[in-house]
Design goal:
The chain is an all-alpha fold. It has eleven helices and no strands.
């Protein structure tokens, strides 16, 4: 029964990849230019392209990779490498054990191979999500400082666009560099800076940046007073960051108690097992 299920899963996955290869999506212009100017793709890169055609990675994972500044093709190459290693490792172990005259059922090896391959596909995604979560928290901290700088510049009598550019020049770090690039892009393409900031917030999946763009849009198009709004938003972000820090500290404190509880249970088992064994053996 297990062999039939595994064969069926493999056959379905093969049909999925074959359909993606037979009916590929229309590539983007940037991808075509990269193929024309870059080196010839190897087998792993071609397989990564096939995976992209099937909708892998997801939109959320794509945002996480964009936030971390990592290439989608490189991430898919990691997934393929990890999955291939997990797929081949049990068979290699079986071969080594067979040389040592140790027999293992083929079904067990096949099941272990499929499980390790699935884990290999998921491990890079889990690592990216964990790293992106921490990086997104750092982005919110930097954005809070950026809001304070913009608010101070506005209080000094500067206009909205001037305040945005001056505040981005003062700050340092990845978040400020991205904001500077977005503002430079708006200036070169003659578009409004809040539109580029909104796109940046959507790409990075940072809701606070999107909300900032919406507030600036009201100030730029309808003449609304934005200084008080930015001050309130910066204060709200600091309050949220403080609450998140307290929650993280409480969670860390709870995790620290788990080893103590495990040690206590082990000690109780160590002390109580001889007595319980003696009582049971008397009957």
């Amino acid at each position: 029964m297990i062999s039939i299920v595994l064969l069926g899963a493999g056959f379905g996955a093969g049909l999925w990849v074959l359909a993606a290869w037979a009916f590929p999506p229309r590539p983007r212009l940037a991808a075509l230019l990269a193929q024309g100017t870059g080196p010839t793709a190897d087998a792993t890169s071609r397989l990564a392209a096939v995976m992209r055609g099937t909708g892998v990675p997801s939109r959320q994972l794509t945002r996480d990779l964009t936030l971390l500044g990592r290439s989608i093709d490189r991430h898919l190459t990691y997934k393929i490498t990890f999955a291939g290693s997990g797929l081949l490792t049990p068979w290699l172990l079986q071969f080594l054990l067979a040389v040592a005259d140790v027999e293992i059922a083929v079904v067990s090896t096949t099941a272990a191979s499929v499980v390790l391959a699935a884990i290999g596909l998921l491990v890079p995604d889990v690592r990216v999500r964990s790293t992106a979560r921490a990086h997104r928290a750092e982005t919110r901290h930097a954005l809070s400082a950026y809001l304070d700088l913009v608010w101070i510049t506005l209080a000094g009598g500067a206009g909205v666009e001037t305040a945005l550019n001056d505040a981005s020049v003062i700050g340092r770090g990845t978040t400020f560099s991205r904001i500077r690039r977005a503002l430079d892009s708006a200036r070169l393409t003659r578009t409004s800076p809040w539109d580029t900031l909104r796109r940046l917030g959507d790409d990075l999946d940072v809701a606070e940046l999107t909300e900032l763009a919406a507030s600036l849009s009201l100030a730029g198009t309808e003449g609304a007073r934005v200084r008080q709004s930015l001050a309130a938003k910066a204060a709200a972000m600091r309050t949220r960051q403080t609450s998140d820090a307290e929650a993280d500290s409480q969670s860390a404190t709870e995790r620290m108690s788990l080893p103590v509880v495990a040690l206590l249970l082990g000690f109780l088992v160590f002390i109580g097992y001889p007595a319980i064994s003696q009582v049971l053996n008397t009957f």
